[in-house]
Amino acid sequence: MTRIVVLDDYQGVALTHADWDPVHADHEVVVIREHLDTSEGVLHALKDAEIVVAMRERTVFDAERIAQLPALRLLVTTGMANRSIDLDACRAAGITVCGTDGRRLATVELAWGLILAVLRSIPVADHGMREGRWQETVGFELDGATLGIVGLGRLGSAMVLIAKAFGMDVLAWSQHLDPAHAAELGARAVAKADLFAQADVVSVHYGMSERSIGLVGADEIGAMKPTAVLVNTSRGPIVDTPSLLDALHAGRIAGAGLDVYDQEPLPADHPLRGAPRTVLTPHLGYVTRQTYDVFYAGAVEDILAWRAGAPVRVLT
Questions:
Q1: CATH code of the domain in which 218 resides
Q2: 295 lies in a domain?
Q3: Relative to the CA of 245, which of 101, 226, 256, 286 has its CA 20 to 30 Å away?
Q4: What are phi and psi of 222, to 5 degrees?
Q5: Residue 293's pLDDT band (boundaries 50, 70, 90)?
Q6: Angle at which helices 106-119 and 122-130 pack, to 10 degrees?
Q7: What pLDDT band is residue 37 in, cutting at 50, 70 and 90?
Q8: How far apart are the first and last CA of the chain?
Q9: Which of 27, 58, 65, 283 is an active site residue?
Q10: Is residue 220 among the annotated active site residues?
Q11: What is the domain extent for residue 131?
């Protein structure tokens, strides 16, 4: 039987979010819950796999790794883009790469959860209540405050409407932002430095690329108000972690809400885990029941279509 390996199913739910029965008829499906963080572990798990289902960008498939997986013929990634997959190397090796549909607002919803959790100290208050304490924190209101959005693409644009519902002013910056487009959405395009200096909340929604690594660095964080907070639900390397840690420990910003990190899963001894005035979540932006329904149902459809000789949502 053809061997299918489903990677990085942290919660052990992959087989419950789609009807895998048509796949089981001709395939052995192996689900791996833990993250394989070494090449040896990945190669051992995938050495006989003809089909691999990868969850987002959790596992790297570069040219070197692909060359060591001669049995691999179909690589399915959840979503329609995955920077961890070398598409040229897959094409050269005769490996079909297919994607799946996704959902639009899950990450935006989590971004607002982090904003509220940081500004109202919700985790701290919850912990205090469970230890018998009462009213130890003073929050910060969104009404009348200014949101600065770094990246006004699909997700950044969705942030604007919600910010307006809270009564916020909205500033936006990206490298090629059209001021007229920003105005149509209800945001004001400003220079990067002005956004960081004026915003009460900075939320990062920028695409990951070589140019965006360290986009939010010491200068940007240093320009923020001491009462302002930074939220990143995009990609960890966009924010310079040492600069953020310095600002948090020195009290130069009020806090941070983070869902993404330079290294994932975040090591147990990582300094962010002990950083003050932070709310940390383990890259949960897209992790919802509805999104997983779409991802895994799409993965099954990709497998069956490929086996029938008519692959769908082909990336290469």
A1: 3.40.50.720
A2: yes
A3: 286
A4: -65, -25
A5: very high
A6: 60
A7: confident
A8: 25
A9: 283
A10: no
A11: 106-280
Is the same domain home to 66 and 14? yes
**Residue 206: inside a domain, yes or no?**
yes
Q: What is the pLDDT of residues 188-230, one digit of tens each?
A: 999 999 999 999 999 999 999 999 999 999 999 999 999 999 9
Lateral strand order in the sheet of 27-31: 27-31, 2-6, 51-54, 74-77, 96-98
pLDDT tens, position by position, 270-283: 999 999 999 999 99
184 and 129 within one domain: yes
Q: What is the mean pLDDT of residues 54-82?
A: 96
Residues 115 and 88 in one domain: no
Is residue 258 over pLDDT 90? yes
Using N-to-C axis directions, what is the helix angle for 154-165 and 106-119, rounded to 10°? 50
Q: Please give the structure tokens belonging to residue 12.
A: 């052990």
Instruction: Give yes or no: 264 in active site.
Output: yes
Does the structure show a pLDDT above 90 at 104?
no
Residue 89 and residue 40 in contact, taking contact as beta carbons nearer than 8 Å: no
- Choosing from 188, 264, 277, 307, the catalytic residue is 264
Active-site choice (17, 50, 235, 301): 235
Q: Is residue 150 part of a domain?
A: yes
pLDDT at site 107: 97
Segment 291-302 shows an average pLDDT of 98
Tell me whether residue 91 is one of the annotated catalytic residues. no
Give the pLDDT of residue 273.
Answer: 98
Domain count, the chain: 2
Same domain, 113 and 93: no
